[in-house]
TrEMBL record:
This is Uncharacterized protein.
């Protein structure tokens, strides 16, 4: 009989825990909507996500400009890494094409 009571107690505790988790989640990790930046607002208030490697692969001139700014210290973070990866892959692709005679 104690085995059945222990099983019921565990199930009740799990249900209560999951229920509390669903109820308390908005308070623990609040979901804030991303506000659109007005055109006349300064960009320092609205951080811009770094451009992706695919963007820089399509715009190699921008990638090389960002790499130069990264070396000067004007730009940092993921944008530098993404630009560097795109330039390295493009240069490698060009070297491979030259090696193969294309």
């Amino acid at each position: 009989m104690t085995h059945g009571k222990a099983l019921i107690l565990v199930v009740v505790a799990l249900v209560a825990g999951f229920g509390a988790g669903f109820v308390l989640r908005p308070m623990i990790v609040p979901m804030h909507p991303v506000a659109a930046a007005p055109d006349d607002a300064p960009s320092a208030q609205y951080p811009v996500a770094p451009r992706s490697k695919q963007y820089f692969a399509a715009h190699l001139d921008k990638a090389r400009q960002v790499l130069a700014a990264c070396k000067d210290g004007a730009v940092g973070g993921d944008e530098c890494a993404n630009a560097e990866r795109a330039v390295i892959e493009a240069d490698g692709h060009d070297r491979f094409k030259r090696f193969m005679g294309n």
